[in-house]
């Protein structure tokens, strides 16, 4: 993904004059002993070690040299070991610091995610949150040796390590250049988007601007909801091949798109009923497969969202036109007849390991009653840690902060119908905050979308100008 490039392009609007470090040599300033003296971790954080070296990355017109810093630290009594990476361009620093987020279970996307900001003049940083950047599962770190959940590392992932990054990143930047950044920004998508919203809520003075794309807020319950269509398929004992589901998607787009469009611009108005396709033959590789009533039922349930037998809506659905392959994925081992469910790994991991606290459970045995009960259980146990749905952003606004966030209407993993903040159960919160939040819902964009567009750049420019 090119989200770092996207955000860097957006932030280039209204850019200030480039600044250089002072006359100290790179070898003296990019050294562990010189940089370590500046570090003062929040709370009870304790530095274990600092590493620093001069490295290079390709720039727009020439190779960019930068100081690559790694800070290793711990919170005594937590048995965690966290690594913060900070990259500082030797020349042409633009006076800004950018924190870069992760994805899935990964607190960061690795040091490579810093190269684009550095090539564009930013001092940039990321944190591993105390565990390897593996996005699909928490198996390597979720449990302590006695089998209990590692809540310390979970808090590191949810919020604590994010603030440590902001504090340490700016301290190192100040030490290296002789003065701190005049502005600091956050950039992230999905988990990275949630991280940005978390910073605005818990640490409102950490960043001046936050780019939070497709933010994975309401984590405890929406991750449970991501298993909904897999549960439906399990209960039906029916797993359509993806070519059948793709045919249903194509039919919905054809029925609900405007003239000359290949996407649904207003999915809320799409009343397409997949049952009208029953009997139609889907074109699959080397054969055709008739669409059945069960196929249509599965599609309808994903679009409707999680609904109990008595009509209670527990969570939103995906929009017609979004790919089924994200949450209703199946795999077929023998032609197109021997298919099984292929759940989204994060949802499967979250339900088994964190909500049910049984990593060995076979989720195919989940009953409807047990599944519906997971929503309240997950909310009660984890919302206060990682829910990221605090509606009061007045402290961030008071500090002069600005947020740009978007959610593609064709997102295949995170439900765009859910309000940006749901604690108040009111979409009007966005209208009240629009003076410092730019929030929009582009059609056709999925969670993998990442291309700079004039609309986004203009929006951010307007927000920066007040």
UniProtKB/TrEMBL annotation:
Q: What is its EC number?
A: 3.1.1.-
InterPro entries for this protein: AB_hydrolase_fold, Tannase/feruloyl_esterase
**What does the similarity note say?**
Belongs to the tannase family.
Name-wise, this protein is Carboxylic ester hydrolase
Going by the record, the broad EC class of this enzyme is hydrolase
- GO molecular function (one): feruloyl esterase activity
Which species is this record about? Penicillium chermesinum
Q: Which UniProt keywords apply?
A: Calcium, Disulfide bond, Hydrolase, Metal-binding, Serine esterase, Signal
Q: Which SUPFAM superfamilies match?
A: alpha/beta-Hydrolases (SSF53474)
